[in-house]
């Protein structure tokens, strides 16, 4: 059976750091409140001349450089994002242009903070089918550009960044994507959204008047959902392959809030050393968060070939899902 194996990973974040103390100057908040409620100390914020494709393209270049793959051998570029450069064309097409991957198909996939999980499932199944061999799977979001910087309940949570992997088809191996579960519940669409700019409320039309042009989030509802969703997706994906949490070498959850990560860790009964956490340094980078985590875990020597990693994400939609990958 053909498997979709991770051959390289990369990450890219803005240089500009915004600390909690910087935020104290913008809104009525404090470093201590943010740390206690979220675990976040600082986040990266892009400049006006940096966009989703800036970071996604950087990741794509790293993936080619690290793997030695020629750009002409890339068959597919999938970018998980809800903050692409423009409503259209896709950010994946900008990435294709940046690396000159002229033989690749390219598309974006919108599953908010679960964007990387969904993108892995989408690209992985095409690699496993044998239709394609090499796929760049990238998660990127630049939520700092969509946040209301006067709303303390949301602006402290988010940061910008991208990460990604090269998935390559390989036979006769037990490495690669082992299982994915993808879940959603559109009844919760109103809990987190960005109203303006789509076909429902197009900009500069009467329909758009009074509509929000910033992220809206019902924090308490999202929190309740997140705690349930993380445990739900992890238990389902483990059950489907007949594994238990003991079989997992590293858990790389979506980095939204340390308390949500701790709740998932407790539900799974995992020891703290098996859980990767960097929410303190980046905040919630949405679709970027899981691949940034994978990349940093590998760089730190916590993720080595043959190890089994469980990733899980949740976000606006509502959507959630989990992947088990043999690294
Ligand atoms: N600084 C100080 N006080 C604040 C701040 C702040 N930054 N933000 C809110 N508060 C206040 C509130 O106004 C409230 O005050 P009140 O009691 O006088 O009304 C109080 O703090 C408590 O607010 P809560 O909302 O109850 O705080 P909670 O402990 O629930 O934490 C948080 C809020 C961190 C937002 C939490 O609800 C959370 O993490 N939610 C999930 C967010 C998330 O994971 N989103 C990911 C999906 S996003 C996507 O997919 C794009």
Descriptive overview:
Helix content is 32%, strand content 24%. The chain has helices at residues 20-24, 31-38, 52-67, 91-99, 115-129, 152-155, 219-241, 258-268, 279-282, 289-299, and strands at residues 3-12, 17-19, 42-44, 76-80, 105-109, 134-142, 160-170, 176-184, 192-193, 216-217, 250-253, 308-315, 319-326. The strands form four sheets. Strands 1-7-6-4-5 form a five-stranded mixed beta sheet, with helices on both faces. The protein has a four-stranded mixed beta sheet with strand order 8-13-12-11, sandwiched between helices. The chain has a two-stranded antiparallel ribbon with strand order 2-3. Helix 7 (219-241) runs parallel beside helix 8. The longest helix has 23 residues, at 219-241. The radius of gyration is 19 Å and the shape is globular. The two termini are 17 Å apart. 51% of the residues are buried. The model has no long low-confidence stretch (mean pLDDT 96). The structure holds acetyl coenzyme *A (ACO). Acetyl coenzyme *A binds at residues 29, 33-34, 37-38, 112-113, 152-153, 156-157, 192, 217, 219-220, 222-223, 226, 256-257, 284, 286, 315-316.
